[in-house]
Amino acid sequence: MADNTKKETSHREAGRFYKLHLIRHRIKHGLILHSFFNLLLRVGISINPYWIDEEGLHLCEEPEIRDDPALYNTGPVDKKVVLELYQNLRWNTEELMDRLQSDYQAVGLFRQDALAAFMLMRYHSFTYRGNRIDLSKDEAYLENMYTYEDYRGRSLAPYLRYQGYKKLADEGKIRCYSITQYFNKSSQKFKAKLNARHSELWLHIGLFGKYKRNFLLKKYPSSRA
């Protein structure tokens, strides 16, 4: 395929009024509580219930793109470009700088040469809010799925996720895990399209960077049974 990094985004995310758009988006998609708890994080208070979800080829069929599929292809995204993408999206890059040294791949979905969506696939282990989970050789962790505003409404995220499952399966990793925050309705809808299953329900409590604890609230039946 063509150089994956040659065409930077000319998307709304780089626009002057993107923050205002985010507010409208969160109201429209029922993300008020999710946004409220994100605001608490800014003053050092974390109250964050979340699921660890199981995903993979064994749970869903291949999603269809609401567009001409011939226009799309998947390919790797260079780690240096991942950092630029985080900066453009105004995401926190502190944790990413450490993660860039770890064993992971970034995968993008391109519409012709334009990056339309991307995600990260991590191996061996993952850590969320101090909760470290070790992975088996046949497991992977998926994070930071993002579809650019100009390409939303075409079911690109489920499609890219499925392509990730296939790539991982070729590497012997047949079971994938991800985090879904309890109040993030958009993420829940996305996972439902892939028939993802809850594995565990956790609660993270953090106070001003001094007290940080994760509590396991519930375990769900495993698909391995």
TrEMBL record:
Highest taxon above the source species: Bacteria
Question: Do you know which InterPro entries this protein is assigned to?
Answer: Acyl_CoA_acyltransferase
Q: What is this protein called?
A: N-acetyltransferase domain-containing protein
